[in-house]
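Input sequence (136 aa), recorded before submission:
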Amino acid sequence: MTEGTKRETRIAQGLHYIDPLSGSIVPPIQPSTTFARDSDYRLIAGGHSYARDQNPTFIAAESMLSELEGARDALLFSSGMAAAMAVVQALKPGDHIVAPKVMYWGLRNWLLEFCAQWGLDIDLFDANDPNGLENT
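Predicted structure, token format:
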């Protein structure tokens, strides 16, 4: 972070973004979903491959979120299921997941049916019970 500049100020100023072509200080929104490739199928402008992966808008938003949270990094996902799957894929058989009983039904079903098949232990708790998590 720039010395003496508060994190919130850096975010409000777009992390001091300056467009080299226009001089704009507001990071642009990139509406493109695909990016050009050469005859060998290499990206012409490296690093930007798909709207949900390495898109300039996503990169700017992730940078701002990590700055706001004081984190080393941040990731955006296209849905809650995508975020949950990314976390669960880092687990190995025998690992334990504790989740609330009441949640998006698709995630609940996925945890109980598929994650259990992968050898993950799943326990659900009553989030309305002040001791629910502790008692699980």
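Checked by second reader. The helical segments are 7-12, 56-69, 80-88, 105-117, 132-135.
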